[in-house]
Amino acid sequence: MSTARYPTPAWRVTLDGTDLTARIAPRLLSLELTECRGGEADQLSLALHDHDGRLALPRRGAVLRVALGWHGSGLVDKGAFRVDEVEHSGAPDSVTVRARSADLTAGMRTRRERSWHATTLGAVLRAMASEHGLIPRIAPSLASTPLAHLDQQNESDVALLTRLGQRFDAVASVKAGALVFVPIGSGTTAGGDPLPGITLTRADGDRHRYSTADRDTYTGVRAYWNDRPGARRRSVLVGDDGNVRALRETYSSERVAREHADAEWKRLQRGTARFELQLALGRADLSPEQRVTVTGFKPEIDGTGWLVVRTSHTVTGDSGFTTRVEMERDAGDGSQAAN
């Protein structure tokens, strides 16, 4: 039997710098790693047999580092994760360890009260990065955006980062020691390097799902703002009049209203089509924000450019390694890398 046709998964797990791979490999039930574009922390779940009761429970706060791949083709480092939940269950006895991206520290999740005045988006994000010992990776086009006023009220820094990402339709995340804030679709890593494009064929997957939504019937987005000097409520329109989606919130200024309307318009355009593909042979090199071309499906699917939103990698104890890729239509927005 050809080993080339039946590759064997390879993986490595370290705990606080100690390589545990050989020790836990015979106990592996599953290793599941989910990588998100932004707004959510990357998550790791590790399930292990404890039939003999000899498996020690890791402490909360311990750091796991994971690499995935295939024997003969090397491993891809998938980053560090801080243990935040440990579960022991039975019978048969097993241990499940859940961890989140190690860069999301307790300090980033602590609620704060502060305000900024007459500043820029870049200044706020650079200050946040400095406070948490992170390298700022902010797209220049976004860094120069003026902020007349910004409140952080009983809100953690990670929640504020997510809110700003929604406002400016940006990848807003903390990964690999960096605070990343770049336009969605910019196609860069946390280190600022360009992500390679990927081509996937129908033969690569064993299950898929394609869906379209009626979001493409919207012609534009309207957002409202308070004109205090004029004592009236005004609106801005991004796109065209006709079947317009109106945002519920009333914003403090015309600029802020336009920023939210523009971000929502971009999300609507990307959300007109979604595609999920379960890869029979896992691809550890796949990650959010990569551009993907697919072939072998319907013309509507093959003819669409795709942008990865989420990847879920699963390794099982019976030598399986699969990857589920969730994608949305690539609207072509955001081409400027961070520096």
UniProtKB/TrEMBL annotation:
It holds the Pfam family Phage_GPD. It comes from the Bacteria. This is Late control protein. It comes from Pseudoxanthomonas taiwanensis. The lineage of its organism: Bacteria, Pseudomonadati, Pseudomonadota, Gammaproteobacteria, Lysobacterales.
